[in-house]
């Protein structure tokens, strides 16, 4: 704009000089044109006025010089007025480098967005899932043997696939078992009512109720109080602590006929409290500190104590009744206890010690533990109201378990009554029961296995297996000792297919006892051995007896180790009961 005005002004000046005819050295006459100073706000009007009035005189100074001076004043005024805006226009970011810097372009550009991390797979573990499905499909495609129905063979395929899934765990156990039931219903192998029939069985619910009792036992502080009492008495060594629990459970065994109630309602809460008191918790890497060994020891000895007394396990009277029908001889309470006394005591001593050597706790000796436990008891003070309610409820429940037979009150009804008291008094809330995910998971998978195993028997597969074994062993022409040894091993390790001792006894006890007797085995001796082993075989798996889901559900021992040590302890128990026990039974005149 300034250059255009300058050009216009110079043209005006030239033309005005030429029009007026004034020479440069000639004095000008007074002019009537508007002076630039007289109209400072309209500088260009003066130029226009001079052009339109060519006869106007020009002053002593040049028109260009006057105009230029005025323009400079206007520029100064503009710079003063617009200075803040000019500063904003030329301002650069605080951290930006100078315009000439080589980093300007790289810093000014926004940083690249971080790569999007893929979400981790939260579904099933694919390889274990494939192994489980492949097991079922392969067995499904194999033709059923003669004498086995199609439904029985298909159910066996689904059952074995479920067992493989439970071992490899592509999903939590409850989910695997539920998928197994779904496959049975989908393939029309089982009806829906049949597949879910075991959810009306007492044992899975008794196990779930045991977890709810354990929650109250720990929540009220009663568990810690009893645990500190045990530590104060026996806690100078882990082995001494373990033996105190083992023999306490054995003393209660003849009075409480449900191993599920005995293990879950009394000893699981106590053992969990002891583990927590000794700093052994689930999920933080301290399981091996004490909890793993203690849980496995208490479980494996619970099957021994169940075998020692006729009234220590609910299925033991079934063995006595079946034996009476097969051989015509009755096994009394004293006969049972006397025969099991020596091998039972030896197992109760050897099993904890063996596990202490091959699966040891990291805490073995703690001389200061009894003193610290007594200090903890002093700090706890007297029992609180909730502790008193919890202990009273537990005593009433245990009393009903002991005398329930005379009062016509079964174990699960007594447990529900006890839980009702805890819920009504607020010692345990229903939300806390719902939060016990392990209880509901155990209820699901245990009920599913009971249903499938039960229908394997109903479909005739177990009877076919028993008859086949009998024919094979009977045709070998061996002595009764060797024949009975083979029958015992087959009877014992076939328990992998059962989720209940009662179901196993009902399906196979009579057939195996009859064949053993026909081959020359002393009938009473054979009946007692099979009855004892019907308890000991429960230690093989985490579902083989009522106490197994209880202790396994505490999550201190991985499943692979549970099965591995279960198999190893089974060999030890067979050697003790058939070896040393055989000598003892010879002394008693049983053979």
Describe the structure.
With 591 residues, the chain is mainly alpha-helical. 69% of the residues lie in helices and 0% in strands. It contains 26 helices and no strands. Helix 11 (238-252) packs antiparallel against helix 15 and helix 12 packs antiparallel against helix 13 (291-308). The relative contact order is 0.10.
The outline comes out as globular
Distance between the termini: 130 Å
Class per helix and strand makeup: mainly alpha
Q: Flag low-confidence runs.
A: 1-60
Count of helical stretches: 26
Strand content: under 5%
Total strand segments: 0
- Helical proportion, percent range: 55-70%
- Average pLDDT over all residues: 80
Order of helices and strands: HHHHHHHHHHHHHHHHHHHHHHHHHH
**What integer value in Å does the Rg equal?**
47 Å
Biggest sheet statistics: none
Gist of the model:
Helices cover 69% and strands 0% of the residues. The protein is mainly alpha-helical.
Top keywords for this entry?
591 residues; mainly alpha; 26 helices; 69% helix; globular; disordered N terminus
């Amino acid at each position: 704009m300034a250059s255009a005005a300058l050009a216009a002004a110079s043209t005006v000046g030239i033309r005005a000089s030429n029009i007026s005819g004034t020479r440069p050295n000639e004095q000008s006459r007074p002019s009537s044109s508007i002076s630039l100073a007289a109209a400072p706000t309209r500088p260009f009007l003066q130029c226009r006025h001079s052009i339109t009035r060519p006869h106007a005189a020009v002053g002593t100074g040049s028109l260009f010089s006057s105009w230029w001076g005025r323009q400079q004043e206007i520029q100064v005024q503009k710079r003063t007025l617009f200075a803040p805006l000019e500063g904003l226009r030329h301002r650069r970011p605080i951290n930006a480098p100078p315009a000439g810097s080589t980093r300007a372009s790289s810093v000014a550009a926004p940083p690249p967005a971080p790569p999007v991390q893929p979400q981790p797979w939260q579904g099933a573990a694919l390889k274990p899932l494939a192994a489980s499905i492949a097991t079922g499909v392969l067995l499904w495609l194999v033709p059923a043997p003669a004498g086995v129905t199609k439904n029985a063979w298909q159910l066996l395929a689904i059952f074995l696939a479920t067992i493989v899934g439970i071992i490899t765990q592509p999903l939590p156990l409850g989910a695997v078992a539920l998928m197994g039931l779904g496959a049975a219903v989908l393939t029309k192998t089982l009806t829906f009512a049949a597949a879910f029939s075991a959810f009306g069985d007492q044992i899975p619910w008794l196990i779930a109720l045991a977890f709810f009792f354990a929650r109250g036992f720990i929540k009220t502080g009663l568990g810690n109080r009893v645990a500190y009492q045990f530590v104060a008495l026996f806690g100078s060594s882990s082995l001494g602590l373990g033996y105190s629990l083992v023999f306490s459970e054995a003393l209660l065994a003849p009075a409480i006929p449900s191993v599920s109630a005995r293990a879950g309602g009394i000893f699981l809460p106590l053992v969990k409290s002891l583990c927590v008191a000794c700093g052994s918790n689930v999920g933080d890497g301290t399981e091996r500190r004490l909890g793993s060994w203690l849980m496995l020891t208490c479980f494996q000895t619970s099957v021994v104590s169940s075998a020692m007394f006729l009234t220590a396990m609910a299925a033991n009277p079934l063995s006595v009744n079946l034996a009476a029908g097969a051989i015509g001889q009755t096994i009394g309470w004293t006969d049972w206890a006397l025969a099991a006394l020596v091998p039972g005591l030896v197992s109760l001593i050897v099993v904890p010690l063996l596990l202490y050597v091959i699966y040891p706790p990291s805490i073995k000796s703690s001389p200061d533990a009894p003193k610290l436990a007594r200090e903890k008891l002093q700090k706890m003070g007297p029992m609180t109201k909730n502790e008193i309610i919890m202990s009273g409820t537990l005593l009433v429940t245990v009393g009903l378990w002991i005398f329930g037979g005379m009062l016509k009150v079964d174990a699960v009804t007594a447990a529900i009554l006890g839980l009702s008291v805890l819920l009504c008094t607020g010692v345990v809330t229903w939300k806390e029961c719902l939060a016990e995910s392990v209880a509901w998971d155990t209820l699901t998978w245990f009920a599913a296995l009971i249903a499938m195993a039960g229908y394997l028997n109903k479909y005739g597969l177990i009877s076919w297996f028993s008859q086949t074994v009998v024919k094979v062993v009977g045709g070998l022409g061996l002595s009764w000792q060797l024949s009975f040894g083979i029958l015992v091993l087959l009877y014992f390790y076939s328990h992998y297919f059962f989720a209940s001792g009662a179901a196993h006894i009902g399906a196979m006890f009579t057939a195996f006892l009859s064949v053993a007797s026909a081959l020359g085995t002393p009938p009473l001796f054979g009946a007692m051995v099979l009855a004892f082993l019907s308890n000991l075989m429960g230690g093989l798996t985490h579902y083989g007896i009522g106490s197994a889901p209880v202790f396994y559900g505490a999550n201190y021992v991985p499943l692979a180790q549970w099965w591995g040590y279960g198999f190893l302890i089974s060999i030890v128990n067979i050697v003790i009961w058939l070896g040393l026990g055989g000598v003892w039974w010879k002394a008693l005149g049983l053979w």
